[in-house]
Write a structure and sequence with these properties.
The complex is a heterodimer of chains A (about 650) and B (about 150). Chain A is built from 29 helices and ten strands. Chain A has about 650 residues and is α/β, with parallel strands linked by helices. Classes of the chains: A alpha/beta (about 650), B alpha+beta (about 150).
């Protein structure tokens, strides 16, 4: 099998091209040791099996950001057979900058100019042969939308595999001062056998720029890098010369069409407008929210009814007995309660995917950035947090799009404080019993507190963990694109299927465990669940909770919906029994505890996989427990004084 | 002048890029290299961040980031807000409504007035032998040329 690596800037349609080539034959894994996802897919072309690796979108091959490190490390060490640099036909400059960097580093490179159909629509003519001549690579024009050029691209890839390409790239020279320094370093490198797997010129250029990795490699052989001050000057000169070259090539290779206000600019004028920007942003959020919950809820109801019917049917054919109870109450009840949310989750990803593919998401981030900046986050993390009102699992998962690790981690850690829909049943039940007539005010205040708590947590965590360095917002606003159904579906499926997998694993297992704990040795007061509740009861005595409430909290850790069903099981009829057990302020304190306390199992699992290890998952559990306990205790204490 | 001080709608030329080494590479790669012309496209609500066009791409930078890029005006006339301390300018146009026009008139500013900038934020300037103060918002609407 031959490997083909796709490299390019973000937003050049690289992933669409990847989808167009490999179709559904792709899978996503994580790069070893880091949480950047690695997309691979296969395609058999003229009898040759090709493995395509879609590398993260980057602007330069530095070794600073995670995406850059991953891409550079891959190109440097894993030796793909062909490297395809993808650039956007409407805006090639930054892509060609990357091409020059790749050419300096490796052989067997080719160039793909994507979105050629859009360029043609704008009367933009690009001369393929000028590009081939000046960059010394094969060039193919493609359109991931119409499929144009993809066969030619595959043929060229096979051609390069058969007849390896060595790029001389002779036309391009840096300023004399730089070339002289490059020569000096190259001469020193020549004498070191161990460095023969690298391109000498690349090592020399990177040494001049004081690239940390290269400086370390060369340091082992006593080859010195310039001072920091010199390196800054060289870096600027090198980048400057590359862009001069690109501009001069493009002047020959491209006809510039007459400029008129494009639809994209007109849209931007309104959507990112100084005054309209934020109202439009709120309207878009509301639409996404309402699509996720209102449009999708009939499907949820349908699934809910399906599971109830399945349960009833199982009961009729299996009769009564503990096995039936396990299957119906444990497995079907437990897993079904979660699968009911599948339509919401897919709906949410569809809304999010649409906004991302069409190019709205970076604009939303741009508009809201100033507010988020106060929390040392950016507009991007706001998008993830808002998803948390539906379910924290997709909220945490959607942080994958946040480029900055620090911001991503903070967003992951605070997102469980956003009160998800699974907690709503608890609020409704308790508010209905204890605060009749004032339910709306009480529940609204919980939602409000949830937002405030999230904001405070973000600020505190940033201060404590990262000493509050602001996250840079260097972001491209890509032009608007109408997403294809195929890309949207792949977007939704790729993200949504994790949820299905989790329902089949962690949630199934916890449902079975809870059923056993609740029913052995016998159901009710003597069950293991009761024992468990009684063990932890002393801790909750200052809050005034009895052991049944404690048991509900413990079970609710698996999935927050379970709190209410445990109440049902323990008290029989909570509406009649509870008022004699606890006072209204204890109920309020309990609601706040449920709002803030540990993320459910599914969320813990995604925090672990997304934040990279048990360390952060454990931190999240302990931190939220501490916060929940503090808030609940305060309410209990203040309540005791007032009532 | 810093890129963050360039008025919306104007074009400026990059003189130097002074980020920390970790971000410097990415900023240069994006096309913010010395000699490049950058257009200030738009600002977000509350004036921060702003969008710039550089080598055909629209890139957002927070003002704290744009502070690290030194630029100079390229067009002959530009807003007074982009003027440099110690230099002399001639007023070429006013880009405001009737209220704005009456305000500049009351300050003794006319098309053709000579202005010597003494300090900035806000601008204090010598006009016809008198020192006047001009807010940065007003200064964005007064187009000048250097003499």
């Amino acid at each position: 099998m031959k490997t083909v690596a796709l490299v390019g800037n973000p937003n050049v349609g690289k992933s669409s091209l990847f989808n167009a080539i490999t179709g559904a034959r792709q899978y996503v894994a994580n790069w070893p040791g880091v949480t950047v996802s690695r997309k691979e897919g296969t395609k058999t072309w003229r009898g040759v099996e090709l493995k395509f690796v879609d590398l993260p979108g980057i602007y330069s091959l530095g070794a600073i950001s995670l995406d850059e490190k991953v891409t550079r490390g891959y190109l440097l060490r894993e030796h793909p057979d062909v490297i395809v640099v993808v650039v956007d036909a409407l805006n090639m400059e930054q892509g060609l900058f990357l091409l020059i960097e790749v050419l300096e580093m490796r052989e067997n490179v080719m160039l793909v100019v994507n979105s050629i159909d859009e360029a043609r629509k704008k009367n933009l003519r690009i001369d393929k042969y000028e590009l081939e001549k000046h960059f010394g690579v094969h060039v193919v024009f493609t359109s991931a939308v119409t499929g144009e050029g993809i066969e030619e691209l595959l043929d060229r890839i096979l051609h390069i595999i058969r007849k390896r390409e060595v790029h001389s790239f002779v036309n391009f020279k840096y300023q004399p001062e730089i070339e002289e320094r490059i020569n000096d370093i190259e001469k020193k490198i020549e004498n070191v056998k161990e460095l023969s797997s690298y391109k000498k010129r690349w090592l020399a250029i990177k040494a001049l720029e004081r690239d940390p990795e290269v400086v370390e490699i060369l340091g082992d052989y006593n080859i010195k890098a310039p001072s920091e001050l010199e390196a800054k000057k060289f870096k600027e000169m090198i980048a400057q010369r590359r862009y001069e070259y690109i501009d001069s090539v493009l002047r020959e290779a491209m006809s510039i069409p007459t400029k008129k206000m494009s639809l994209s600019e007109a849209l931007d004028h309104v959507i990112t407008h100084k005054f309209l920007g934020i109202p439009i942003f709120l309207a878009m959020m509301y639409l996404a929210f309402s699509f996720t919950f209102d449009v999708m809820s009939p499907f949820s109801d349908l699934i809910d009814r399906g599971f109830s019917a399945l349960g009833e049917w199982m009961r009729t054919i299996m009769g009564s007995g503990w096995v039936t109870s396990l299957v119906v109450n444990g497995v079907i009840g437990g897993v079904g309660a979660v699968l009911v949310f599948v339509p919401n989750i897919f709906g949410m990803f569809l809304a999010l995917g649409f906004m991302e593919e069409v190019g709205y998401l970076p604009r939303a981030a741009f508009v809201i950035d100033k507010l988020m900046y106060k929390l040392k986050l950016s507009g991007r993390s706001f998008m993830s947090l808002i998803l948390g009102f539906g379910c924290n699992v997709p909220a945490v998962m959607s942080t994958r799009g946040i480029p900055d690790y620090r911001e991503r981690l903070i967003t992951i850690l605070v997102s469980p404080f956003i009160t998800c829909s699974a907690r709503l049943p608890t609020y409704i039940l308790l508010a209905g019993i204890f605060f009749k007539g004032k339910e709306t005010v009480v529940i609204f205040s919980i939602y409000l507190s949830s937002i405030v708590l999230t904001a405070i947590s973000a600020t505190v965590l940033n201060k404590v963990l990262f000493k509050g360095q602001p996250v840079p917002l260097v972001m491209e606003l890509p032009r608007y694109r109408l997403p294809s159904a195929k890309n949207l579906w792949l977007y939704v499926w790729e993200r949504g299927k994790h949820f299905l997998e989790k329902a089949g694993t962690i949630i199934l297992i916890s449902a079975i465990i809870i059923w056993f704990l609740g029913n052995f040795p016998s159901a009710g007061d003597n069950s293991l669940a009761a024992d468990l509740g009684k063990i932890f009861e002393p801790i909750f005595r200052p809050l005034g909770y009895d052991w049944k409430m404690v048991t509900a909290l413990i079970f609710g850790a698996a999935a927050k919906e379970v709190v209410v069903s445990t109440f049902q099981m323990m008290y029989g009829n909570p509406a009649e029994v509870l008022p004699s057990v606890i006072t209204p302020y204890m109920a309020l304190s309990f609601m706040f505890f449920v709002m803030a306390y540990m993320p459910c199992f599914a969320t813990v699992a995604v925090i672990k996989s997304e934040a990279g290890g048990w360390k952060w998952a454990t931190f999240s559990i302990l931190y939220s427990l501490a916060v929940a306990y503090t808030i609940a205790l305060l309410i209990s204490l203040v309540g005791r004084l007032i009532w | 002048m810093k890129l963050s001080e360039a008025a919306v709608g104007t074009k400026v030329k990059i003189v130097s890029v002074n980020f920390q080494p970790d971000l410097q590479g990415r900023i240069l790669g994006l096309g913010f290299v010395p000699g490049t012309i950058v257009e200030v496209v738009r600002e977000a609500p509350f004036g921060d961040p702003r969008v710039y066009t550089v080598h055909g791409k629209m890139i957002t930078l927070r003002n704290s980031e744009a502070d690290l890029i030194e630029v100079q005006p390229v067009e002959r006339s530009f807003p007074l807000s982009m003027a440099e301390v110690g230099k002399r300018y001639v007023v070429k146009a006013f880009l405001g409504g009737p209220f704005f026009m009456s305000r500049v008139k009351s300050m003794g500013l006319y098309i053709g007035s000579l202005i010597e900038v003494r300090s900035k934020f806000p601008i204090t300037a010598l006009v016809d032998g008198r020192i006047i103060r001009i807010g940065m918002g007003m200064a964005e609407k007064i187009m000048v040329e250097e003499i």
